[in-house]
Amino acid sequence: MWVSPEDVLLAGALWITERANPYFILQKRKGHGDGGGGLAGLLVGTLDVVLDSSARMAPYRILYQTPDSLVYWIIAHGTSRKEITEHWEWLEHNLLQTLSIFENENDITTFVKGKVQGIIAEYNKNHDVKEDDDTDKFKEASAKFRKLFGMPEEEKLVNYYSCSYWKGKVPRQGWLYLSINHLCFYSYLLGKEVKLVVRWADITQLEKSATLLLPDVIKVSTRTNEHVFSVFLNINETFKLAEQLANIAMRQLLDNKGFEQDRSLPKLKKKSPKKVSALKRDLDARAKSERYRALFRLPKDEKLDGHTDCTLWTPFNKMHILGQMFVSTNYICFTSKEETLCSLIIPLREVTIVEKADSSNVLPSPLSISTKNRMTFLFANLKDRDFLVQRISDFLQQTTSKIHLERELTGSLNSSDDEVGIIERFSPDLGSEGERTFNLNDSSVPTATQALMTMYRRRSPEEFNPKLAKEFMKEQAWKNHFAEYGQGVCMYRTEKTKELVLKGIPESMRGELWLLFSGAINEMATHPGYYEDLVEKSMGKYNLATEEIERDLHRSLPEHPAFQNEMGIAALRRVLTAYAFRNPNIGYCQAMNIVTSVLLLYAKEEEAFWLLVALCERMLPDYYNTRVVGALVDQGVFEELAREYVPQLYDCMQDLGVISTISLSWFLTLFLSVMPFESAVVVVDCFFYDGIKVIFQLALSVLHANIHQLLGCKDDGEAMTVLGRYLDSVTNKDSTLPPIPHLHSLLTDNGEPHPEVDIFKLVRSSYEKFGSIRADVIEQMRFKQRLRVIQTIEDTTKRNVVRTIVTETAFSIDELEELYVLFKAEHLTSCYWGGSSNPTERHDPSLPYLEQYRIDVEQFKGLFNLLFPWANGAHSDPLAVRFFRLLDQNGDALINFREFISGLGVLCHGDLTEKLKLLYKMHVLPGECALMQFNVLRKSPLQNCRKCFILKLNTPDYRHYLKLWNQETKPKRENTKDLPKLNQSQFIELCKTLYSMFSEDVAEQELYHATATVTSLLLEMGEVGKLFSSSSSSRKDHNMEGKSEPSMCMRDTADPKTTREAGPDGMFQQGDCGDTFVRAGLENKPSPCEEGKGDEGNEQLPPMQDIKLEDSSPKDTGTSSAMLISDDETKDDTSMSSYSVLSAGSHEMDEKLQCEDIADDTVLVGLPHSTSIDKDWAITFEQFLASVLTEQALVHYFEKPVEVAARITNAKNVRKVGRPLLSTSDYEISLSG
């Protein structure tokens, strides 16, 4: 290809000149091509890999040089001699003579450069090449990556790094390529090549470690191998990127969310010091945005635009605090360098004025931001203040336009509603006019327009006691805090805020502060009317989620009076149903009802909904999906933390298996299900303020407090009792709530009650002992555990699928597991590189195991060619499409693993009749076949019971018994009589299929002859059958005669042996008419069966001699009807005596069919080349089966045993070489040279 001219100082180094003229030189790289260039070639090849010069060095290049200059310019390079020769010849024909005209060398150089750049521009224009930010070097590295590993264009390289790969005890220096879906390594040292490809989705462990010999190592583990990489220039960057890509792959396995590149990134500046790929910039931006959102609890679609160092003036202590300002689309945030000193969130919807103040020595580059609640924030020491103000102004403009648009859409909102602040909402009268009320249901059901706790607080005005006094003091402390630090979302959040939270939030302020600290207030403010719309849309809808919700409604805090009547239950139903409707991926999960009921006690209905959104989608990610993956991940994190912080207890707890039992219920319900209610809400207070670390700290504190009792426990039951008694004794002495009976005290035994534990002391103790746990460390641990948990789930899925199917097929368990891996990998390929259907339609983790992965017809074609014995290269696709349609019972253009295995099972383990039946069905029109159940694909109505049954059986003979039981539960096999007849056009397609199936078989010639005989015979049968059907309909007065004669014929021909030997008094002798039928088929014209045409038999054929195939009235109805006995009289698959005679055929035909004669027109077997199809012509399956059985070559072909293991191994190897992605886990490393 032509390249933008670049100067080259040493033209001869490492290159050999092959052609030259006064202006241009064509060179070849040493070590490339035949012979390899000896030792010099090996050294050059090694240098190219180690120094990355091969990423930009094609093996051929053309240099330009003026005669008197020492500087060369590279103007073209090529990967093949043909490509570079084309460029060379173009230069000789078009430029050489023109250049001789110029007198000045500078003019020649300018002309050549301009010409080459013009060619490149023209090429880009004609081929619609889009400009991107990637540098030329990176593009060349991408091209090399795709070439080395056989990746398609869709596989995007993110970055590549120099490193060593340890093959055994030998390090191989080379390059590590990280793409969206794969980790690849390539090395070429002194003639030895190493290639490694690992799919991110197959990685079970990814860790950075250090040893004495190797200070920096990245270890990549899969199910079968472990790979070690070292000697990185920047190991932290490499590891972070690898983590991010593995996370994306896990996310894809979990909920099928693939990677989509963000095209809205700003362009790189021309003088940017570090050139990275657009994808790498995208991933870096995503990682920063994720950290930013987590730090300030912002909505999940918020993108960070940039951040800068600055100072913030804090009026409460009259100081300039050093920290960082973050600016995103809808927020300006600040956090101090000293983590807990101060943080601030300013939504742009609250901003009224942004202005640049005058600079001074004391306050350089100040920026003042004012908000609607009359707060002003003063930032200073901003490096690029003008640019920052411009960005904020742009975002402000977008925000105001959004607000105006929302007002126009909702109509009901007025400006005063928009400006209702938290100040008014903290007022004791929760039914004030400042808040919007709405009725979400019909008038017959009361609606919760305020927090349920306010309705059911049993407090008389004159009642006053020490607890209430303490509560009143707490309220005053918070009001003083608001007066000093501001109120609402723009409040300064400091160490003092945390102290107040740890002392307990007052009952009356709990809902509002939960909303504020969780960030749910932002989503609620930016989505006015959203909840009402959801409730309206979701009410009256019924699905699995709503059924589960109804079942659990009365189990949610049943001890609380708020949920002992219809108002509380209805509010809970609305919130849960609305969320299930909003997020069908989660729908509803047990434990959501307990958490939501507590939210409803302290927050209004709409607020409770947004708090639930914040919990499920941001604060407890993946906790409430069908597999509670998030809770399992955090359970693993908790185990790691326990090993680190309570090591003396860890081994004991692992032996008892207690950690996994306790942590799931503790995490899923935030201790609400295991602690007295009034104590558990204090935990929820801290959780909304400080996030998941609070739950870990508290769980560790509980273990630490019971360390001696737990060490003395002998089993898990005893340990659970110890922990249950302890948690039951946790009390909140400050609570003003009436005592609520605690149902979980049933866990305790009848021994002495545990001494009371104060919740505030427990929380404070957890901060003192385990407060060093950092959020970023938790995220790091979560990544490691997520890999383990999701891969364990995938393995469990595979085992369950195999257990379910193993009784229905003859494949072994190992074979099924291998096939499942190939099937799943084919699904993943389409997710990576696109397919004809949407991946989200093909993978739904909420479905039963067998349905989770499905493939479409394009993926099926690939597997068909590799695994199915009928595949034969060029002619396979049409057959694969037919096969796919047959397997796709529900017509959704997708097949699951069970359907796939049932089809493959017939071809690999089925008998001759089953295989032929399958082939026959493939050619029946879909409309006729729709109601016909394919017996091997039928699903047992007891499928779920069977799965449970399998899990309980441990005897070695279980598979035998299950097979017997499976046979009993299956519906009876369909009768071959139920199969529709094949019409003429379908028969033509069947003939084409048969001919194409044998195109690459070793017995190709013999199979062609056999096929010609069978197809010609079937053609004649169809013709005779047509005559019989037309004659029977036209001669109604001879009905009795027509019915009696066939029955006589059937009696005469009941025994195949006697029939085959019959002479003129029977029907025909073997071979009498075979040649005639074939000839009739091949001549494409009506042909009578004349006597004496056979090669061996010369006997006369009285019943057939006068019949002409195209005649409308047969001479002998009895005989022709005898040819169709099976239509009405055949009782089963083996009753085919009359056909044994007819289809015996002749193997010694006058006109032998040669291999080269088999062309597209020949497979029509005697049918005229016209568009007219004979609608009356038809054959049955029995006729087809009987005809095939007479040809030994075809019988051998269809009965040939299939080497399943060899096919699976071959499929894996082909995928490794052809499309690396589809290996079972990772490629074997090939060393050549």
UniProtKB/TrEMBL annotation:
Record-level Gene Ontology MF annotations: calcium ion binding; GTPase activator activity
Species in which this protein is naturally found: Lates calcarifer
PANTHER family (alphabetical): PROTEIN VASCULAR ASSOCIATED DEATH 1, CHLOROPLASTIC, TBC1 DOMAIN FAMILY MEMBER 9
Protein name as catalogued: TBC1 domain family member 9
Keywords tagged on the record: GTPase activation, Repeat
Phylogenetic placement of the source organism: Eukaryota, Metazoa, Chordata, Craniata, Vertebrata
InterPro entries per UniProt: EF-hand-dom_pair, EF_hand_dom, GRAM, PH-like_dom_sf, Rab-GAP-TBC_dom, Rab-GAP_TBC_sf, TCB1D9/TCB1D9B_PH-GRAM1, TCB1D9/TCB1D9B_PH-GRAM2
Signal sequence range: none
Keyword Repeat: yes
A Pfam family assignment: GRAM
